[in-house]
Every structure is written in structure tokens, then in C-alpha cells.
Amino acid sequence: MIVTRGFSGRGRGGAADRDRVPPGQFVTPDFPVLTAGPTQHTSLDDWSMSLEHDGGTLGRWTWREFEQLRQTDRTTDIHCVTKWTKFDTRWRGVTVDELLSAAGLAAAPDLFVIAHCDGGYTTNLPAAELLGGKAMIATHYEDLPLPASHGGPARLLVPHLYLWKSAKWVRKLQFVARDKPGFWESLGYHNFGDPWREQRYTGDP
């Protein structure tokens, strides 16, 4: 496992922003780069995004097809398990709700999702945490194509959970009936990862 970091300085939010900072976090103006393994680079000609359930493909989009889906802009704070928080990050992409709609599927909040990524990374989430506008497949950051160092050409964005759940280089969302730990979860990180409850590691409440 290789962990690469790109980080400089510590910031601090003002008093009016304190209710935006989860316990144990500090605010930074930077966007640190932390990656388990080497940065993945995928040609847009080779890229695809798919939804799967019970071993079958529910929907699959090439990059060109994906760009034709309805795009959503979102400004949100993000929180990393390494204790930094960044305010007002701006993203654009396709919500998970829109992907399900494009595939002609109804939401299934009682299932779980395994996000599969280039490089072999996985992370697990309850499907309910991706629905209702909570999550997207993000392709742009601050009005520019998402760079590979931050998960481009596309990453999962689930900003209400710690950022390791927002899997970089995502290629497939697999809906499953039973939860299964992903990469960091199998190494002792919390299965859910709520920053407001400081759910960093297994055993945290």
C-alpha cells in the first residue's frame, strides 16, 4: 500500500463557522491529496460507469453517454478522517438518483452499495446514504474537470460522510443485499463514517 500526501498548512474557521466543523476537525483552505496506492489514469475513451445488482448489469454509460445525463451542481463542505475540513467546495456531476432514473430503476434504500474503482479500491455504504440527492458521481471540481489526483475523471461524492467513502476513480456501484466491508473498512476504519459522531475507527460509537 502506498499513501501519497499533498498538504500544506493549517487553516482555522471563524467563530461563525464553528457549527460547520465536526468534532476533532480543523479547517484548511487546501485540498490535501491522500491516496491508498498509485494515482489511476483512465482514458475517457476507455471509461465507463455501471450499476449492478445480483451479478447483472442494470445500466452502463460510456463517458459521452454519461455527459448527456442531467448534471447537478453542488456546493458543500467536505471532511477527511485525517481531521481536516474544507468549506464550500464546488462540484458538478450526476446524482445517484439520476443514474437510477436513467436506468429505469426505482430507489432501493434497503440495499447496500459497494463502490468499485480503478486500482481495486472499494468502499461500502447503505444505499439510503446515496439517495435523495445525498450523493453524486462527480466529474468537475471548481468548474474544471476533476484531476486524477482527486479521483478524476469521476469519483463518488458523499459529503456528509468522511471523505474515504467518496471513492476516487469510481467505475461501478454494486447493489447488494448484505453489507460487505470495503478496503479501509476491512483495515479497521468505521463501517459508516459519520464525521459528526467521530466514527473514524471500528469501535467508535
How many domains? The number is: 1
Q: How much of the sequence is in beta strands?
A: 35-45%
Radius of gyration: 16 Å
CATH topology: Sulfite Oxidase, Chain A, domain 2
Mean pLDDT: 92
**In CATH, what is the homologous superfamily?**
Oxidoreductase, molybdopterin-binding domain
Question: What is the share of helical residues?
Answer: under 10%
Class by alpha and beta content: mainly beta
Using the alpha-carbon principal axes, give the shape.
globular
Summarize the biggest pleated sheet. 6 strands, mixed
How would you describe this protein?
The chain has 205 residues and is mainly beta. The chain has a single domain (24-37, 49-197), classed as Sulfite Oxidase, Chain A, domain 2 (Alpha-Beta Complex), CATH 3.90.420. Helix content is 6%, strand content 35%. It is built from 2 helices and 13 strands, in the order βββββαββαββββββ. The chain has helices at 63-67, 96-102; strands at 3-6, 26-27, 33-36, 48-53, 56-62, 72-79, 84-95, 112-117, 122-126, 136-141, 144-145, 155-157, 170-176. Strands 2, 6, 7, 10, 11 and 12 form a 6-stranded mixed β-sheet that branches. A hairpin with a 2-residue loop joins β10 (136-141) and β11 (144-145). The longest helix has 7 residues, at 96-102. The radius of gyration is 16 Å and the shape is globular. The two termini are 28 Å apart.
